[in-house]
């Protein structure tokens, strides 16, 4: 997800990595409608025939297929999340290990070690005033511990609840005698 989402459009945008000003992409075997559009256009150009689509049609098809592809990717991601959330729920397991992957003023995000699913610890479990202090982009200050926690840090967690509607796992930190949830 670090690269910019591709979009289908009629204007030649080239290919930066290959150093081409003009570039067309399609998969083989043909799997998507945009591949058919490219093939039909190339075939017409090679045979020196009239293009099968107007520029407006190509633009409209590009916009529509880009939107549909994003919707399909979102649906696939949601199904994957649902299966993982249900899997965690079905294991009956209550304690997990997770790695701190991000934070907002109201929660922290952790990726569970056992499988690639993200969980949440709400701020109320980490501070008395329900709002976390974010001193920099790489750490969050945990008031109940009087110390910062850093991205990548390992936490011991207890499953609080499973929210299949929002596709979320909610955890609480497992505090030891020293009030320590970190390993």
Commentary on this structure:
It is a single chain. The protein has 183 residues and is α+β, with helices and mostly antiparallel strands. The chain is built from 2 helices and 8 strands. The chain has a 5-stranded mixed β-barrel. It has a 3-stranded antiparallel beta sheet with strand order 4-5-6, with no helix packed on it. The radius of gyration is 24 Å and the shape is elongated. The protein starts with 32 loop residues before the first helix and ends in a 10-residue tail after the last strand.
Core attributes:
2 helices, three-stranded antiparallel beta sheet, single chain, OB fold (Dihydrolipoamide Acetyltransferase, E2P), 2 domains, about 180 residues
Tell me the series of helices and strands, N- to C-terminal: HHEEEEEEEE
Low-confidence stretches: none
Biggest sheet details: 5 strands, mixed, barrel
Helix-strand category: alpha+beta
Order of strands side by side in the largest beta sheet?
A: 1-2-3-8-7
Net shape? elongated
How many helices in DSSP terms?
Answer: 2
Portion of residues within helices = 25-40%
Question: How many domain modules?
Answer: 2
Q: Number of DSSP strands?
A: 8
What value does the Rg take, in angstroms?
A: 24 Å
Q: CA-to-CA gap between the ends?
A: 29 Å
Beta-strand proportion: 25-35%
Question: What's the topology here?
Answer:
Blueprint: H1 33-46, H2 55-91, E1 95-104, E2 107-112, E3 118-122, E4 133-136, E5 139-142, E6 147-150, E7 154-163, E8 168-173
Parallel strand pairs: 3-8
Antiparallel strand pairs: 1-2, 1-7, 2-3, 4-5, 5-6, 7-8
